Amino acid sequence: MSFFLYFSARRVSGNRAALMGSLTSIHVQSRPGYQPLDIRPLVCALIFLAVFAGCQGGRYYMANRLQELGIASALGLFVLGAWRGLFQLDLATWKDWFIKPICLIIGIMGISSLAFYANYGGNPLFSFFSAREFLLAFMGPGIYLLCRSGFPLTTVEKTLRFTLIALMLNYLIFYFTLDLKSLFFSSDHTLSNLVTYDEWRGFRLKPPLFAIMVALMAALIGLGQSRNFLTWVVSLSVLGIAVYIWSIVMFRSTLATMIMSIFLYPVFLSSKNRIPIMVVLFPLVILLMPVGFQVMLDLFLGSDGGAIRSKAFALAFEQIPKHFLFGAGEDNAYGATYQDIVAPYFYPDDIGLVGTLYKYGVVGAFLYLFMHFKIWARLWFANMRYVEEQGQINPLLWGLFMWLTALAFNLVLNPGLAYAQGITLASTAFALASLYSR
Fold first, then answer.
1. Which residue has the higher pLDDT, 140 or 311?
2. Cα 187 to Cα 60, 190, 202, 340, distances in angstroms
3. Cβ neighbours of residue 108 closer than 8 Å, sequence gap 6 or more
4. Is residue 393 a contact partner of residue 222, using CB atoms and an 8 Å limit?
5. CA 424 – CA 416 distance, rounded (Å)
6. How far apart are CA 200 and CA 188, in angstroms?
7. Backbone angles phi, psi at 203, to 5 degrees
8. Cβ distance 66 to 58 under 8 Å?
9. Looking at 226-230, 282-286, 413-417, which range is the least confident one?
10. Residue 195 in contact with residue 204, Cβ under 8 Å?
11. Chain centroid to CA 55: how far?
């Protein structure tokens, strides 16, 4: 009898999609005129909130409390996608996009909080929730499961494009309405951190940088291949807004990496036929990497505050061997913080990949590099497949690919995927690329 029950259960779990379809058809037949619930408005709202808040669109008001709503929206997408996928997808796919993300995200948060507890004491739960921005990564698996369960991918892309535009307009509204000088000198650090200042650029409101990068490059390719007047006007308008914001913030190194990515695309990345060229030139790239790194380091250290950065790097390398494997861990505001521990010498978030190595150890740094390359490779393959099948470039997919390529050039100095903006866009990019790679 037990064998019969086990065999029956296996048959049911292996045919969940058919079972769900049968139950739905029976339900509809028993209730004439029945209309299933349309979840598209809910999903679009959750995507908008998760991306808008994850890209720091709410940092200008309520002390960025909107990020908590964004995290809740990302979790909502994940739960909704997992529930629908449970009945409509095969078990292997569902496990890949439900179990693995949970293990990865909760593992990062848990290990980093326990590492800080082991090194400096305190309550590990505080450190765990201090790392809650990693929960934004649940957005990508949620989108993937929903789209595999029948949600239109085009609707997701339209929502993402609308959100990127909203982020740029939101920035301009607050740039023109806030008193940046008063904010910069405010005693409230949540307000003073919104503004940066130097002599030649003046007071600048911190932007949703990664969202602007994606929007700018997506608009650029959209403008180049637009086939009707309306698309051309929209692409030109988005490009104009992004360029105007860039004239305000003037991030030179980021702009340089974007230009490098755009020029390298037609040479190495625009076709699978370029792979032999990449293989041949790879040893040369390895040889030139130390030179390129030295040039970037000279520019980085030669800018304003370069001497301070140089000293911070040296001090960080002295501290890293003390917490080599799992790093110092995730601090929290209810116990010892990095401002108390190492701020007189350096601050992890200000020294790029070296700070990531100090904070998460060699295991965390390796995981970061692995995930960056994995997402980049998936985006490249998805772009190639889309071009082969459609005969043109997908602007959003290409913009995300160029953004991650540009980020790779500045990887040592700015590991952006370890923070809310990068986590949000990278998770979304991986989901879209996986959907287009099927």
1. 140
2. 16, 9, 20, 19
3. 131, 134, 360, 364, 367
4. no
5. 11
6. 25
7. -85, 130
8. yes
9. 282-286
10. yes
11. 8
